[in-house]
Write a structure and sequence with these properties.
This protein is mostly helical and about 70 residues long. It is built from one helix and no strands.
């Protein structure tokens, strides 16, 4: 009887470890998804910023006086 009880407790402990491992894997996948969303937002933000700065430089160059032609 004691052997069966010990085996049952061992199996319960292993099941608890598997449940904890599943929770950790789920949390890890959620964290990866959040990191990917943040990366995407940053890339979009930098792309918009680069486009705006390029447009400002082009506009500024149009208003500069011609150089070297007399």
């Amino acid at each position: 009887m004691t052997g069966i009880r010990n085996a049952t407790l061992g199996i319960q402990a292993e099941l608890a470890l598997l449940a904890n491992k599943a929770d950790v894997l789920r949390a890890q996948s959620d964290l990866r998804a959040r990191i990917e969303r943040v990366e995407r937002r940053l890339l979009m933000g930098f792309g918009v910023l680069a486009g705006a700065l390029t447009a400002l430089v082009i506009v500024a160059l149009r208003y500069l006086p011609a150089v070297g032609h007399s």
